[in-house]
Write a structure and sequence with these properties.
alpha/beta; 5 helices; elongated
């Protein structure tokens, strides 16, 4: 009974630690599953042939249309252009250029045209080349709108690609659930921001981290069992019920014995 009272707090601590590692492992498995789903979506849609932009279908099933190339026809609205701040690329500070595009039926779709390096100071872009409002055919990849960051307003800038935050546009005609990432435009503009690279297909370290947390939980139980058994063995040795455990000699001790014998 005394032994139970002695080890009960340690056992409770091991259980709590194992629960914590299980939750952390589950969290990493969940993050990996989400990452794998995004990768599968990119693989399924990114290199598909462009189709006509079916707005209603996209609104009903945006997830299945993520990264899918579509064709749209209309004109840029350069007077409503903005840049999205805090978008580094290859370790360099920069911005994304976003310009509303009015389709032939009056629908307005935000277009992310590419990346612009930061200037001096880095709170402003080095340049912001805008297209004219001539009619064009665009091919864009559809992306879900980013959540609003609810940060301080900076004129001509947004904190995220949240089309609903674009100013001076008809709310009834503006698409707020998604936007397009530019692939090509015809006719081309004189200057175009740098195209964003294809999304990474790397799953990351989530699986290894998840397995590590599982291992930590098992190690805690193994250490607890070893400690209980070791204390029991020492107690039996003290009572003379078990012969003392013979310590294994290391190589230095064996070499010394050989020298002494010689």
């Amino acid at each position: 009974m005394n032994q139970i009272r002695r080890w009960a707090p340690w056992f409770a601590l091991v259980v709590l630690f194992s629960i914590a590692t299980s939750l952390l492992s589950w969290w990493q498995f969940t993050r990996r599953d989400e990452r794998v789903q995004r990768i599968e979506q990119v693989l399924a849609n990114y290199d598909q042939a462009p189709v006509e932009y079916p707005r209603d279908e996209v609104e009903l099933s945006l997830t299945s249309w993520e990264w899918r190339p579509v064709k749209i026809y209309g004109s840029y609205l350069p007077e409503s252009a903005v840049v999205v701040r805090n978008r580094p690329l290859s370790g360099q500070a920069g911005f994304l250029q976003v310009i509303p595009f009015e389709l032939a039926d009056g629908t307005i779709l935000a277009i992310e045209r590419g990346w612009i390096p930061a200037g001096s100071p880095i709170t402003t872009p080095s340049a912001n080349p805008l297209p004219d409002s001539a009619p064009r055919e665009l091919i864009v990849r559809l992306r879900a709108a980013e959540p609003s960051q609810q940060r301080g307003v900076v004129e001509g800038q947004l904190a995220s690609i949240a089309p609903a935050e674009l100013q001076g546009l008809s709310e009834e005609r503006l698409v707020t659930s998604h936007y397009g990432r530019l692939v090509s435009e015809d006719p081309e503009s004189g200057q175009v921001p740098a195209a964003m690279p294809k999304p990474s297909l790397d799953e990351g370290n989530h699986l290894s981290y998840a397995l590590q947390w599982v291992l930590f939980g098992l190690m805690a139980f193994a250490a607890f069992i070893w400690a209980v058994r070791n204390e029991r063995r020492l107690r039996l040795e003290e009572q003379g019920l078990l012969p003392p455990k013979t310590k294994r000699k290391n190589q230095a001790q064996l070499d010394a014995e050989i020298e002494d014998a010689g």
